[in-house]
Design a protein that fits this description.
The chain has 398 residues and is of the alpha/beta class. Helices cover 53% and strands 11% of the residues. It has 3 domains: 167 residues, 3-Layer(aba) Sandwich (Rossmann fold); 82 residues, Helicase, Ruva Protein, domain 3, CATH 1.10.8; 104 residues, Arc Repressor Mutant, subunit A, CATH 1.10.10. The longest helix has 21 residues. The structure holds adenosine-5'-triphosphate and magnesium ion.
């Protein structure tokens, strides 16, 4: 008879510490980010001295280490001996409105005012009074700030507070992987946020290999992972996106596959198998979280990738790329069939830029000759799978 949950207590032959492989783990040492960490710290120096510093905006593709670096800096600031700067880290996926962000600030620093029932003006005044007590500098880190519903109001409130505060001040550090939201912001909020901008570049395959190697050393048992596996996982992730999260997901998944096969080592086969899983899993997560119209654009691209666009007939070598304009027409007809309002071409272009930033599509400008200059677009994942996933997600739920 098979013991129920026997696997639950079986010791893994490959993993030494699963925790360090989790996507939420913040490593002690962040490789290749010394310069970025230094720059962020430098920009915070005035705040730590008790003067209002310049706001910072951190921008970079997914998996480039933005959250890890900023959390690293936040932890360091918190460890400093008594200073007037007080820091709050806000994950805007959870705190996604001005009210929630202000409540989070209050609950971090003045717990008695974090109770439910306070109006926004009350919370705002409490925060201002708390800052003025001894001229504090409040540093607010807004991670994934593009998700905040009333971002303009939030930025305006935080910035305006500086003219309401008699002594002390507020500094904002914004973090995002979306470029397009710049256009949504009021120009005033935009110039406030962009006083200082840092860009995090994607990792190349050598960097990813070093990041994986470092994590394998603490997450896996010794000599379980062949060095060739590390390089292969890094090469796959570098080619795809330069995303460290994907690289780590591949190696972790490969470990799970080896475990399931009762193997005591991870080989190249497991990496290849894991890469497929990991990419799909990431695609599901990312696409599942897209706003409706971006999902519909991806849906149009998936449908057209299956049937083939017109460009296919023009150039057999480039058969998998679709014309941006053709996608827009297909998206329009889908939206109309759902009796929804079509978004303008301006918004459409912004969505396309976002989808590319998130690694869902790849695009390049056509050379001269194909309808002048146009964008050629390709889906990064298998269109059949994406089609099925979006149909489940969008059409079958209600
Ligand atoms: N320089 C690095 N050294 C070690 N691990 C890293 C490094 N950069 C990223 N990682 C790891 O990669 C994963 C993704 O990093 P992180 O969450 O910081 O990315 P991000 O830029 O915030 O991505 P997103 O835009 O999707 O929020 C994390 O598990 C993190 O531990
Ligand atoms: Mg992040």
């Amino acid at each position: 008879m098979v013991e129920p949950f026997a696997d639950l207590f079986k010791e893994s032959a490959v993993f030494a510490n699963r925790e360090v492989l989790s996507p939420h783990y913040v490593p002690k040492h962040l490789l290749f980010r010394e310069r970025q960490i230094n720059e962020i710290e430098k920009s915070l120096t005035p705040s730590l001295r008790g003067e209002r510093g310049r706001n910072v905006f951190i921008y970079g593709k997914t998996g480039t280490g933005k959250t890890s670096c900023i959390k690293h800096v936040v932890d360091k600031v918190r460890e400093l001996p008594i200073i007037k700067a007080k820091i709050t880290y806000v994950n805007c996926r959870i705190y996604n409105s001005r009210y929630r962000v202000l409540s989070k600030i209050a609950s971090d620093h003045i717990p008695q005012y974090a109770k439910r029932g306070y109006g926004i003006t009350d919370i705002y005044e409490k925060i201002i009074n708390w800052i003025e007590e001894d001229g504090k500098i409040l540093v607010v880190v807004l991670d994934e700030l593009d998700i905040v519903r009333d971002l303009d109001d939030l930025i305006y409130t935080l910035t305006r507070s500086n003219s309401d505060i008699k002594s002390g001040g507020v500094t904002i550090i914004g973090v995002s992987n979306k470029i397009s939201f710049k256009e949504v912001l009021d120009p005033r909020s935009l110039s406030t946020l962009y006083e200082n901008e840092f860009v995090f570049p994607p990792y190349n395959s050598e960097e990813l290999a070093a990041i994986i190697k470092d994590r394998v050393a603490s997450g896996f048992k010794p000599n379980v992972v062949d060095p060739a596996c590390v390089n292969l996982a890094a090469a796959i992730a570098a080619k795809d996106s330069g995303d460290a999260r994907l690289a780590l997901k591949i190696i972790t998944k490969a470990g799970e596959i080896a475990d399931n096969k009762n193997q005591s080592s991870v080989g190249v086969n497991e990496i290849t198998e894991a890469a497929k899983f990991a990419e799909e899993e990431i695609a599901y997560e990312v696409i599942g979280m897209l706003p409706e119209h971006q999902k519909l654009i991806v849906y149009a691209i998936a449908l057209m990738s299956i049937t083939g666009g017109r460009y296919k007939k023009l150039d057999e070598n480039n058969d998998s790329f679709l014309l941006s304009g053709e996608i827009y027409s297909r998206y329009n007809s889908i939206v109309e069939s759902l009796h929804k309002d079509v978004k303008t071409t301006r918004l459409y272009r912004r969505y396309i830029a976002d989808l590319e930033m998130q690694g869902i599509i790849i695009s390049h400008e056509s050379g001269k000759g194909i309808r002048g200059h146009t964008k050629l677009i390709k889906l990064s994942y298998q269109p059949e799978k994406i089609k099925e996933m979006i149909e489940k997600n969008l059409f079958k739920e209600n």
